[in-house]
Every structure is written in C-alpha cells, then in structure tokens.
Amino acid sequence: MTTNLQAYRGSLLHFLADPAFSDESHPSHAWHEDGLLIVANGKVQAAGDYATLHATLPPNTVVHDYSGKLLMPGFIDTHVHYPQTDMIASPAEGLLPWLETYTFPTERQFEDTAHAANVAEFFLDELLRCGTTTAMVYCTVHPQSVDAFFTASEQRGLRMVAGKVMMDRNCPDFLRDTAESGARDTETLIQRWHKRGRALYAITPRFAPTSTERQLQLAGELAAAYPDTFIQTHVSENEAECAWVRELFPNSRSYIDVYDSYGMMRPRAMYGHCIWLNERDRQRMAETQSAAAICPTSNLFLGSGLFDFERADDAGVLLSLATDVGGGTSFSMLQTMNEAYKVARLKGSYLPALRMFYLATLGAARSMQLEGTIGNFAVGAEADFIVVDPQATPLLQRRTARRESLEELLFALALLGDDRAIAATYSAGRQVHVRETT
Ligand SMILES: [Zn+2]
C-alpha cells in the first residue's frame, strides 16, 4: 500500500493526562509553539517540534502551513440529540414542559426517512463547523432515524456513536415502542452498525421515567450480550424529574440505582447531566467506570441545576463535556466550556482552561474507553484534528495578542470563541470543514 503522507505545521497542543491530577513528573499535555503533525493514511504518525520532525519527512512532502494557529485533537461532544437541531433555542418553563411542547412533536417527524437524512446532514455540518469530530448522539424512537444518521456519518468517514431511543411509557403514542420491539430493533441496529467503519452503537433508553421495568431489563440484557457497545441515557437532571423517578421506582436507592439494578452501569455507559447525585451514586459511577456527560448550557437554559465538579473529582468519576442540543444552546464546545467555567464558579470551584480542553478531548475519549483511538495525538491514533484560529474575531485577536501563557490563550478561546474560531476540521486526515473567509 502506498502511504499517503501529510504534514501540518502550527502550534500543537494535545493532552497526555488529566491536568487536575498531574504534576511535573507526569505532564498533562504536550505543547509545541512551532509544531508539526504528521499523518499517514489517516492516522497520527508523529507529533512534535517542527525543527525535529521536519527533518524526518521524505523529500517533496507537502507541509500545510497553519503557522499562527493551533492544531489540536477534534472536540468530542458526549451527549447531543441530532433530531432536536431544529428546535434549539425554544422557550419553555423547565424540562418536562419543554419535552411536551417541543421535543416530542419535533421527534415525531423522524418517522420520515428523508426528513431524518436532511437533519442529519445539517447536524453533521454544524458539528464539523464547531470542530467536533466525534459525538454520542441520540436518535429518535424510529430505527430509520439511526440508519439516516449513520449513513450520513459514514459517507463523511466520521467516528460517531449513536442509538435508537427506547421509550415505552409516559410519552405520546406516536413516539412509543414496546419493551420487546425496542429491544428487537436495537439488536438489529447493533448488528447493522456497531463497528461498521467508524460507527459505534449506543443502547439508548431515553431516561428511566419513559421506560417500563421490562424495557430497562431488556436494555440491560442487551448491554450484557454486547459488552463493547455503548449505553447512553439521562440521570438526575432536575429536581422535579428526580421526584418523579422516586414515585415510579419506590424500591430503588436512588435514580442512578434504577439503571444499576438493570446492569447498565459499566464501562462505555455515558450518563447525561448527573447533577442531583449523592456520594454513593458517585462512588458507583467511579467503581463501574460509568461516565458523566456534563451539559452546562442545557442545565442553565432549563434551570436544571449546577454540576458539582469538586465532588465528582473527589469520587474519581470519569468526566466529559457535552452540548445536549437542543436543551443545550450551542453546538460549540468552546461555548460549552465558557458556561462550564461559570457553573464551576457558582459551585465554588475553579476550572482552568487546560482542564476544559482536556475534558473536551482526551477526557471524553477516556470516558468512552477510546483512548489511543481518538482524543489526542498518540502515535497510531485516528487523525481527527482541528485548526483553531486565535485571531478569528477582532476581539479574540486583540485579547490573544496580549496573552502571557498557554492558559491565557486557551481561556480567551473558551470564553470568546465559537464556530468562527475553527479555521478547519479534519477527520481521519481528510479535510471535512474549512471556514469560509469573507
Ligand atoms: Zn439530553
């Protein structure tokens, strides 16, 4: 096989460990002000100093010059609903009325495959425009919504995780499966899509209130039968919802214990929100390597609550950041960091920018048990990366010109940046988005 070798010059940043738990002997990140990323057949061959690595390139290798910009791994959004793209920024008083008024009618449209395909294309365009190269995606209850999504992501060669929502009670008839049909459709979709190309399947009960005990039991059985699949659901998002779960499952120790009792806490299980947890819940998450998808724009928008970073870190829970569009108000992981920072402040803790960029890249990959595949520039990792422009707007240009450290540069990007800061996005070494310049 002939090697397709590409080289990219720019300031290079990627993570090796969690900045919250690193020290000088175990650095959290690699930073090369004048760096070079070498990609062979869609995978990282080397990442380091330009001066050192340039000499190793075969003569006549084209070097794409992004000097003045940052090269970093693509962002990973660990919780997002593609069918809710068209209802982002819809007003409602809290989660449950918002579901009734906007979410369910919007999701109903996905019984139409052409509509699903159309939204999937727009959704993927938007992710790539924002520099997100991998996401954990909720489809709707309709199996065809999953086919439409994976067909679109496969055509672009993207590393994506998705699944059919399972929902057999407390929802409109037009969005209801049954315990048996939901499990059967899920298994068919696992066999069709899981590990086909870069697609990965997530078993996706929407949340405990919309599944019967029988449905949760069957979801847990699938999770055991297909241990390398993902699981995704919502937990402890807001107080009214938690009270509802206590009524529906009076014998459970807590909300997350409902999932635990059906075998759904395990590696590759991603729990959205995780706001109203107790210490035992956090311990169980850490013990089982279940991960938390923190959704700050959504939590602020719906008034759900504030994620507690300090307690999650004390327990050693795997953490990542997520947009939760359409409850979330932006597809941008930079804007998600902006709000995560403020949520942490309101809880009395502090999130350095380095930590936020870690959570949006390697932290997410670790949460998904995909370290070495995505999330950093380890040799052999898939070359999903972005070109970030610190001069994307006049204000960013002015602020970043005065930065005195990497932390200040990243902090300005997180607080002031959005899709405009993403100059280009690459997936498996292929350019899949380039910012239009006016
Ligand atoms: Zn959600």
TrEMBL record:
CDD domains, per the entry: GDEase
EC class of the enzyme, as a word: hydrolase
Superkingdom classification of source: Bacteria
Cited InterPro entries: Amidohydro-rel (IPR006680), Guanine_deaminase (IPR014311), Metal-dep_hydrolase_composite (IPR011059), Metal_Hydrolase (IPR032466), Metallo-dep_hydrolases (IPR051607)
Entry EC no(s): 3.5.4.3
GO molecular function: guanine deaminase activity; zinc ion binding
Record text on cofactor binding: Binds 1 zinc ion per subunit.
Reaction(s) this enzyme catalyzes, per UniProt: guanine + H2O + H(+) = xanthine + NH4(+)
Job description of the protein: Catalyzes the hydrolytic deamination of guanine, producing xanthine and ammonia.
NCBIfam families (alphabetical): guan_deamin (TIGR02967), PRK09228.1 (NF006679)
Protein name, UniProt field: Guanine deaminase
